[in-house]
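Section 5.1 Outputs to date
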Amino acid sequence: MESVWEWFRWLNEAYGIKLTIFYDEWDRGRFFSGIWTTIHLSIVCIILSILIGMAGAWFQMSRFMWARRIVQGYIQFFRNTPPLVQLYFFYFAVDSALTDLLGIQGGLLGSYGWAVISLSFFAGAFNTEIFRAGVEAVPESTIEAAESLGYTKLQVYRYVTLPLAYRVCLPALNNNLINLVKTTTVAYAIAVPETLYISNQIWSDEFNVPEMMNVVWLVYILLVGLLVWLMHRWEKTIRVPGFGQGAGR
């Protein structure tokens, strides 16, 4: 492997292509650490946003008007404001207010924690509407059949409605989750050490902006491409012929 790293050193000496992230151990270590931060930030936010979406879709069906209005207010707030503004709101305003209220020194959460919360709520607002559309696509007769078997409302949602809704809303859900991975770059603004933030540090130290911008571009193409492949595999695995995406095929 050392010979591969040395080839990049030769590339710099021969042609001036300064990819220090490969032949400089310090730059390489922090760059791959940044990629790992982007990956687990994306995974955590994807999982939380899906859970928020499922819960939000459930409360939208509540018989209590106040519950439906709270969910609608949440959706409108997060869908109609920029994710960067939301991130600043949580990191500066909410953290400061909670710190003063609870008397905690040094802040309640770090930049990573607030990035997870902000991005999860942002994507969860879209996922709520996506799951709601999927739930509404489930035939009423299917729900009535489950209720006739003695299922409670929660059991119907968990075991019947939600699994079928998944198959309807997966294409839209895929698009939103891909957008979420790309949106993780806004965490740069509050110093979360993800790929873009670390890359900025490296090109500031090494003066290799063109090289690093191309590398960052390739990294996100690979990450998004991997997610697209995984989601398409998941979609094919759970497809039910004659229902949702399997209809007419």
